[in-house]
Amino acid sequence: MPSCVHPAVPPGSLSISAQPILAAGAFRLRPWRLTDVAGLVSVYAESDIQRWHARSMTEVEAARWVERAGSAWAEETEASWAVEVRGALAGRMTLKLDLTEGCASTAYWTRADYRGSGLAPRALVVASDWAFSIGMRRVELEHSTRNSASCRVASKAGFVAEGIRRDGALHADGWHDMHVHSRLARERPVQ
Ligand SMILES: CC(C)(COP(=O)(O)OP(=O)(O)OC[C@H]1O[C@@H](n2cnc3c(N)ncnc32)[C@H](O)[C@@H]1OP(=O)(O)O)[C@@H](O)C(=O)NCCC(=O)NCCS
Questions:
Q1: pLDDT tens digits, residue range 87-107?
Q2: Which residues form the pocket of ligand 1, taking CB atoms under 6 Å from any ligand atom?
Q3: Protein residue whose Cα sits closest to atom 25 of ligand 1
Q4: Of ligand 1's atoms, which has the minimum distance to the CA of residue 119?
Q5: Which DSSP category does 121 fall into?
Q6: Which residue in 180, 182, 77, 92 sits closest to 139, CA to CA?
Q7: Looking at the 3D structure of the chain, how many domains does it have?
Q8: CA–CA separation, 108 vs 123, rounded Å?
Q9: CATH of the domain at 40
Q10: 86 contacts 115 by C-beta, under 8 angstroms
Q11: What is each CA distance from 55 to 62, 90, 112, 171, in whole angstroms?
């Protein structure tokens, strides 16, 4: 049956270009590369990352993860960046893209030695501003109700709290209620 609506972002409009590098003062968001594999393995060995992202990563899995990030850009399903501070891997910012609905959902972390300086919220603002610039209308984020640091990231990046998805995600210690936030294109830019 033909669709009665037009996609928010026309299919094919992203993959005709290389994934952008988003520079923002002291840090930048750049596509993943195979030289990140060792960094990814060490990040996913951290207990906080395993707790909130519910996985660890071997070298082989990390290499596949990097390759998948590249193919997901080509398929227009995801834009995933390494957050780099002075050339070093400091974090991750990923937007899962639904171009038809104009909606992106986020996943992020900051390496333990870079936490506490506002890196994740600033990277989130940069990534969501980019999403709005290509025509997306909503960026959403959800975190376990037990992850107060991630809730602070959402607030600092100007994401409005919307509600709780009960038993929304399975973690190693069982089901967690998930707190949902969003930022809309029509809302004022974050200062
Ligand atoms: C949640 C996380 C992404 C925040 O990243 P960040 O770059 O440190 O963000 P901020 O500097 O804005 O800190 C956010 C909150 O983390 C907490 N925090 C501050 N310093 C911290 C540190 N050294 N270590 C851990 N948490 C710290 C504080 O509650 C802070 O809020 P505040 O600024 O109001 O005090 C990061 O702690 C992380 O990667 N945690 C593990 C993975 C994770 O939770 N991912 C998100 C899943 S939804």
A1: 999 999 999 999 999 999 999
A2: 48-49, 52, 108-110, 115-121, 143, 147-150, 152-153, 156
A3: 115
A4: 7
A5: H
A6: 182
A7: 1
A8: 9
A9: 3.40.630.30
A10: no
A11: 11, 19, 16, 9
Instruction: State pLDDT tens for residues 30-49.
Output: 999 999 999 999 999 999 99
Residue 191 scores a pLDDT above 70: no
Does 191 map to a domain? no
Q: Which of 150, 165, 179, 190 to mutate to test the pocket of ligand 1 (most atoms within 8 A of CB)?
A: 150
Q: Do the domain assignments include residue 33?
A: yes
Residue nearest to atom 33 of ligand 1 (CA): 116
Give CA separation, 137 vs 102, 131, 182, in Å: 5, 8, 10
What residues make up the domain containing 179? 22-184
Question: CB neighbours of 155 closer than 8 A, spacing ≥ 6?
Answer: 161, 181
Q: In the prediction, which pLDDT does 75 show? A: 98
Q: How far is the CA of 170 from the centre of ligand 1 (A)?
A: 21
Per the DSSP assignment, residues forming a β-bridge with 170 are: 175
Does 8 fall in a domain?
A: no
102: left (phi over 0), alpha (psi -120 to 50) or beta: left
Ligand 1 midpoint to CA 96 (Å)? 21
Distance 112 CA to ligand 1 centre (A): 9
Q: Does residue 120 sit within a domain?
A: yes
Q: Which residue has the tokens 């299919």?
A: 11
